[in-house]
Known about the structure:
The complex is a heterodimer.
Chain A lengths: L4 E4 L6 H9 L5 E4 L3 H4 L6 H4 L5 E4 L7 E2 L11 E3 L3 E2 L4 E2 L4 H4 L5 E4 L2 H14 L5 E3 L10 H4 L1 H10 L5 E6 L5 H4 L7 E7 L2 H7 E2 L4 H13 L4 E8 L7 H12 L5 E8 L1 E3 H10 L4 H4 L2 E4 L2 E4 L4 H13 L7 E3 L3
Parallel strand pairs in A: 1-2, 1-3, 3-8, 5-9, 9-10, 10-11, 11-13, 13-14, 14-18
Antiparallel strand pairs in A: 4-5, 6-8, 7-12, 15-17, 16-17
Chain B lengths: L3 E6 L2 H10 L3 E2 L7 E4 L4 E5 L4 H14 L5 E11 L7 E9 L5 E2 L10 E6 L12 E3 L2 H9 L7 E9 L13 H6 L2 H22 L3 H9 L4 H16 L3 H9 L5 H13 L7
Helix pairs in contact in B: 2-3, 7-9
Amino acid sequence: xxxxxxxxxxxxxxxxxxxxxxxxxxxxxxxxxxxxxxxxxxxxxxxxxxxxxxxxxxxxxxxxxxxxxxxxxxxxxxxxxxxxxxxxxxxxxxxxxxxxxxxxxxxxxxxxxxxxxxxxxxxxxxxxxxxxxxxxxxxxxxxxxxxxxxxxxxxxxxxxxxxxxxxxxxxxxxxxxxxxxxxxxxxxxxxxxxxxxxxxxxxxxxxxxxxxxxxxxxxxxxxxxxxxxxxxxxxxxxxxxxxxxxxxxxxxxxxxxxxxxxxxxxxxxxxxxxxxxxxxxxxxxxxxxxxxxxxxxxxxxxxxxxxxxxxxxxxxxxxxxxxxxxxx
Amino acid sequence: xxxxxxxxxxxxxxxxxxxxxxxxxxxxxxxxxxxxxxxxxxxxxxxxxxxxxxxxxxxxxxxxxxxxxxxxxxxxxxxxxxxxxxxxxxxxxxxxxxxxxxxxxxxxxxxxxxxxxxxxxxxxxxxxxxxxxxxxxxxxxxxxxxxxxxxxxxxxxxxxxxxxxxxxxxxxxxxxxxxxxxxxxxxxxxxxxxxxxxxxxxxxxxxxxxxxxxxxxxxxxxxxxxxxxxxxxxxxxxxxxxxxxxxxxxxxxxxxxxxxxxxxxxxxxxxxx
Lengths: 328, 273
């Protein structure tokens, strides 16, 4: 999975870093002062680096909990995000991370305890029912056997029932979750695109079937499960989404879903520019686009009608009250 | 798939075996830095010793070549406290002792032994750190990284001296043998870099129509960038034939051409998959 492990000098002795270094003892281990020396260097090529990504173990300094962008997520109340990891082991062509970071290496911040302190303070300072999103800059569960992220944060949130944590993922790494009691305030939100889109644009990502099987097991074990249909992309097969919905709702109990959302393909304009530079040969980015309020999306005639049709298909399976459009 | 790779060595003795392996002959006219090339997309420069020469040699070879994407590989001898003579290392981190600058060459899955490199101004005899010591690596890397993505710049060092066999005892005549002893690793590296640079050129090379159109019409710098984007979009959308056809047509000027290209691309209204 990784070609090497870089480790910050000050993170090296953290027990979590020591365990990961031991796990990867056969890989080159290279010390650095700050993760930015490797991660933020100029003249890196994200696309080439994806062939041999490295893991960077670091200590997070500064603000660890940030306000979630407006329109992101399921709760209209106060919402936040925190990133124990930057970047993702999957390689989804439509992902904004490739336009946001110069490097394809994964940074794992090992000082979870400091994140927990910040979250605790945020909970104490704010009103009730705050939401904390963990999968904004990474996949929350994809690296679970290495990171132990959920293993640490699920029990933490279980002790803070007034707050909700969303684990956003495309991973099937749920074995750890299935070994513990379901936490009603920890939502496992699985992202899906259609079968054709997944085949074309999602590399190293578990198949839809496997993701559904993992979600089914979680649902059976009592975990709140959510569905995220992102990014929505126009398809030649007009039945593609309907088929996806049929498949999903034949495997999951829709009456037990925490929430369902959709979100169009969209990217901040500067990230899109970077992504286009990286993939000038990618048909997805060569399409006609439109920019509104600094956000690039694909031009699509009758977009609203298409969305409405798609939502109507979705509402044949779910309660519209559990649905929202992600506008961030 | 074979791309282009530039090799840089400090000394003619380090070049000797490489010229033979890769069938490289000297490029005329001879200038400050001796440069060699062959038919396989591999070139080599002998930079001379020290960081400044290494950097200048890299730039010289680059400037003497037509535009294109080329990976860079520095091969040379180095000292190390404990590593055995003849052992080869793919460098993972370079420190320029004089400036304190750090450089981070890519790590691959080639399973070659790796270590840190410290580039020094004078031959190191004390080997204080667990690292290889050379006199060119930092200069080479800094210069090559200014020309191409750092993911295509590698440094490979072969141990010529250590605590038991100090640098003063290195016999220059042994240098070709030291290089020869790492033939398998060097060939593997060159082959790996050729594949990577070919992929890179495939990703970022311009369609041939771009140059044809540049010759045919006058473009401002802004329009030239716009033309590059349009040519790439034609290729990405699988409309090469339409681009070729447009390139054959006669338009009044560059603006008219680009308007026609825009209109053609806008006709692509099909869904993305």
